[in-house]
Design brief:
The protein is an alpha+beta fold. It has three helices and seven strands; from the N terminus they run E-E-E-H-E-E-E-E-H-H.
C-alpha cells in the first residue's frame, strides 16, 4: 500500500524494542510513518505512539507531544517515541489519520536531533528520505 509521510496507521503484534514485550491489542497500536512508502517498497518504517504523556516530563528530548486534531484523529494527547525505529513488511492497512504540517515538521526536526546522539539501527536506512515534501488532507 502507498503511504504518505506522517500518516498514522494501527499495527498489530509490535514487539517493543525497549521492553521486548509483544503488543496484543486486538485493534492494533497507533504508529506514525516518518517517510513515504510506495506499494512496491518491501518494508515500511514507523515510530510508535503512546498515550502515556507523563513520560514526556522525564525525557522531553526523546518524545514529541502531539495534541489531537482533525487530521491525526487521536482521542487524547499522545507522545511519539523518537528513540526506536521499527521496520516491518509493507502491509495493506488503511491510514486512520495524518500529522498536521506543523507536527510533522517538528517530528522530523526533533527526530533527527535525537537520532544524531542515540542512533537506532534503521536510522541510516531512512535518513535520506526524511524531508520537506508533505501532503495534508
Amino acid at each position: 500500500m502507498d503511504y504518505d509521510k506522517g500518516e498514522i496507521i494501527k499495527k498489530s503484534n509490535i514487539k517493543f524494542k525497549g521492553t521486548h514485550k509483544l503488543d496484543f491489542r486486538i485493534g492494533g497500536h497507533p504508529v506514525v510513518l516518518p517517510i513515504e512508502t510506495k506499494d512496491e517498497n518491501e518494508f515500511l518504517y514507523f515510530l510508535t505512539f503512546s498515550s502515556r504523556d507523563d513520560l514526556y516530563v522525564n525525557e522531553p528530548d526523546r518524545y514529541l507531544l502531539v495534541a489531537p486534531d482533525k487530521y491525526n484523529k487521536l482521542r487524547k494527547t499522545s507522545i511519539i517515541d523518537l528513540k526506536y525505529i521499527y521496520k516491518e513488511k509493507n502491509a495493506n492497512i488503511p491510514p486512520i489519520g495524518i500529522l498536521n504540517r506543523r507536527d510533522y515538521t517538528e517530528l522530523i526536526r526533533k527526530f533527527n536531533t535525537y537520532q544524531a546522539d542515540e542512533s537506532d539501527e534503521y536510522y541510516d536506512e531512512i535518513r535520506t528520505f526524511l524531508g520537506d515534501t508533505y501532503r495534508q488532507n
